[in-house]
Amino acid sequence: MPKILIKNGRLIDPVNKIDKVLDLLIEDGKIGKIEESIDSEIEGDEKVINASGRIVTPGLVDMHAHFRDPGYTDDEDLESGSKCAAIGGFTTVAVMPDTNPIIDNTVVVEYIISKANRVSLVNIIPIGAISKGEAGKELSNMYGLYNSGVRLFSDDNQSIHDADLMRIALQYSKIMDVPLSVHEDAIELSGKGVMVEGFLSSKMGLVGVPGSAEAVMVARDLILAEEVGGKLHLNEISRKLSLDYIRFVKSRRINLTVGVSIHHLCMNEQKVLDYNTNGRISPPLGSEEDRIALLNGLKDGTIDVIVTSHDPHNLTSKLGAFNYNNPPGMLGLEVAFSLVLEEIVGKNILDLSEVIKKMSSNPAHLLSLKKKGNLGIGMDADIIIVDTNKEWINDISKSYSKSRNDPYEGKKMKGRVEYTIVGGNIVVENASLVKK
Amino acid sequence: MGWDRKDIFGIEGLTKEELFTILKLSKYYQDSMKSKPAKSFTLLQGYTIVNMFFEASTRTRVSFEVAEKRMGAFTINFDVEMSSVKKGETFVDTIKTINAMQVDAIVIRHSDCGIPQLTKKYFSGSVLNAGDGTHEHPTQTLLDLLSMWEHIKCFEDIHVGIVGDILYSRVARSLIIGLKTLGTKVSLIGPPTLLPEYFKDWGVNIYYKLDDIISELDIIYIYRIQKERAELLRPAIPSIGDFAKLYQVNEPRIKKAKKDVLIMHPGPAIRDSEVSTAIYDSKRCLALDQVTSGVAVRMALLQLLLKGEINNA
To answer: How far is Cα A140 from Cα A107, in angstroms, rounded to an integer?
Structure first.
């Protein structure tokens, strides 16, 4: 494996508290050296990248994406999804278990790991289902899943309605000491809702989801986690009311982390005004008040992780009316970091180091990835190089996804991933996939 | 300023001037219906209009068809039960197919909100919304406004109370928008389960008991509780009986109202549920006037959308 020398880039690593222009040398797929100035070898096949004026950070880690492989490969598969990830600067992606069959048994875990080894450009971590078939009735074989490589459990977009099952899951998860990543939605309250409840839903005639649908479940799970322990991760919080409750119990002994999707940070309910089905997501896009509360939650540290919620649905399935049967979800991997640079860094919500923490270090830690999420010597060489000033237009026809449900189609972007390096291999160069 | 709209998705977005343009032309067609047989026109001769009703309808569907025929248009009633929709064709493909037949207008009713906008994406002719889910029912509002206009002097001087399951009513929603555009004072009356606080953002007052406001109303607009929305409606009222105790317009209750209060009802009425038979059959109830107005406003609207404003008189 050839060495790679990245010269004159601004290295940002919140874990090792680095934010400085330095040179970085990759050897044997690991981070070998970081120094003020590293001379390139006069001979040898070392690759030198001039990163002057660019930032160099640990590769991004997404805790929440759907690759739909096996089962729904008309929407996406491990290869196409991994291309989206690479282009977007994500070197590791945890994939949700809503496949067919569902990731609730070791055979599916092994399939994903072995297929990913063959076709994926980035690291893929299967997320195991908490309950068998994500049906919310009985626990999946969590320990068996853990043994085959699962490091995070989730019933993805299904809430666990049975409080006793959730309590048991939290207890049982302590054996593995890994988080349960939960989607909080009391279906009795959200019903057939397709957007948040409020004046706009009343205007559009659409059934609204009240803030309580999420907050009630958040409150329940906070209480359960306080009582029995376990690591609780709220995977996609969207409402102000939920955040208020989370802050309310902050001083109590709860092992809690909170995630938010890029979509809920960048858009609000206005996005669905034209009944465009690409604006539908679960939980639905909040009001502007919700969005501002989420931004404040990022600022004050209530929110630990930003995810892409990359959720491809093919063209046919998104065709039609804006109703409950239209599958919710949006693409996100290719554009997430550019959106964060503009909407979060550009608007002074977080600085670059804090962003890297929430999009790389924290999710790597939650996924028990000890060799990722920072630029320490000996760590895996999962690294991205980003031009934060590069302007480009998001053109869905150029997406690597098999689906087209992109709510940011045509948007002017600022900031682009130029290089994605995974385990010392360059998979994206000059913002294009490297041809094998 | 001439008329330049080709479609009508809802009352939202129509200006006061546009509403009066429609109402004035409707009045012209209303008068034309006084002769026997009602006068027919040739203005839309050669135009093809397809009526697509994906939801049950009597008065709206028949009214549209009568209006289209009296205007001289060639009309086709698309039969959902007998169509390829039943074979699994997607809605979008159905619209594309109709579009390929060089049709001039589609009149559409559907249980999904936003269907007229979706139709327009794939159809090059005019789209008329005949009711989309719980969103809007613009021609109902236009005929309601026409019926009101025949009995009042000025929309700005009256106070209209709309009573019922506001949350799930496209009729109420369009009417609120229309009346607010014309400067009318509007109160909404219904149980809080079907009348959330945020409805105040429409610029209206909300009341949970009809008795609290009935004495101030010039027009009471009532309609039936929509059982076909039961899929969306969790048990938001304990029973029709309990609802009737609070909201039924009946003789004891009407005694508390202004002497010349008018009752309006879009139909179909469920007698002795939201309205007593005595009141429904009384002179103050405009329900059948509204039906007559329905044909006139649809004639006017078809003319405006397909031909624009021309000097009719």
So the answer is: 13
> What counts of helices (H) and strands (E) characterise chain A?
14, 19
Interface test with A, best of B9, B91, B113, B166 (most A CBs within 10 A): B113
Tell me how close the Cα of B310 comes to any Cα of chain A, in angstroms: 32
Q: Is the pTM of this model over 0.90?
A: yes
Chain B nearest-CA distance from A319, in A, is 7
B55 touches chain A (CB under 8 A): no
| Beta pairing, strands A412-422 & A425-429 | antiparallel
Q: Does B234 touch chain A (CB under 8 A)?
A: yes
pLDDT in tens, B133-174: 999 999 999 999 999 999 999 999 999 999 998 988 999 999
Label residue B1 by pLDDT band (50, 70, 90): low
CA dihedral A155, A161, A162, A164 (to 10 degrees): 70
Residue B101 to residues A430, B97, B98, Cα–Cα distance (Å): 49, 7, 5
Of B91, B113, B199, the CB nearest to A205: B113
**A261 within 8 A of A236, measured Cβ to Cβ:** yes
Edge-to-edge order in the sheet of strand B185-189: B205-207, B185-189, B159-163, B219-222, B262-264
**Number of residues in chain A:** 436
Contact B12/A207, CB-based, under 8 Å?
Answer: no
Locate all alpha helices (DSSP H) within A139-180, ordered by sequence: 142-147, 163-173
- Contact between residue A403 and residue A126 where contact means Cβ atoms under 8 Å apart: no
pLDDT score for B238: 82
Strands A432-433, B48-53: pairing is: unpaired
Whether residue A205 lies within 8 A of chain B, CB to CB, comes out as yes
CA-nearest of B274, B253, B279 to B164 is B274
The reply to whether residue A275 touches residue B118, judged by beta carbons under 8 angstroms, is yes
Q: Tell me how many residue pairs between chain A and chain B have CB atoms under 8 A apart.
A: 62
| Type of residue at B208 | Y
Domains in chain B (CATH in brackets) are: 16-136+294-307 (3.40.50.1370), 138-290 (3.40.50.1370)
Residue with the larger pLDDT of the pair B234 and B24: B24
- DSSP helix/strand/coil, B128: strand
Instruction: Search chain A and give the residue with CA nearest B199.
Output: A199
pLDDT, residue B312, reads: 62
Cα Dmax for chain B: 58
- The per-residue pLDDT for range B55-108, each reduced to its tens digit, is 888 889 999 999 999 999 999 998 887 777 777 788 999 999 999 999 999 999
ipTM attached to this prediction: 0.88
DSSP B271: B
Give percent of chain B with pLDDT exceeding 70. Answer: 96
Question: Is A321 close to B110, i.e. CB distance below 8 A?
Answer: yes
Confirm or reject contact between A315 and chain B (CB < 8 A).
no
**3-class SS shares of chain B: helix, strand, coil, % to 5:** 45, 15, 40
Bridge partners, residue B52, by sequence: B78, B108
A212 touches chain B (CB under 8 A): no
Residue A324, chain B, CB below 8 Å: the answer is no
Q: Is B120 helix (H, G, I), strand (E, B) or coil?
A: helix
Asked whether the predicted pLDDT for residue A261 surpasses 90, the reply is yes
Whether the per-residue pLDDT at A280 is higher than 60: the answer is yes
> CA-CA distance, A161 to A291, in Å (whole number)?
26
Of the candidates A197, A199, A320, which has its C-beta nearest B201's C-beta?
A199
Distance, first Cα to last Cα, chain B: 18
Q: Which amino acid is at B313?
A: A
Does any CB of chain A come closer than 8 Å to the CB of residue B115? Answer: yes
With CB atoms and an 8 Å threshold, state whether B113 touches A322. yes
Whole-number CA gyration radius for chain A: 21
Residue A405 is encoded by which pair of tokens?
């449900």
What phi, psi does B290 have (nearest 5°)? -60, -40
What angle (nearest 5°) sits at the alpha carbon of residue B121, between those of residues A283 and A72?
A: 45
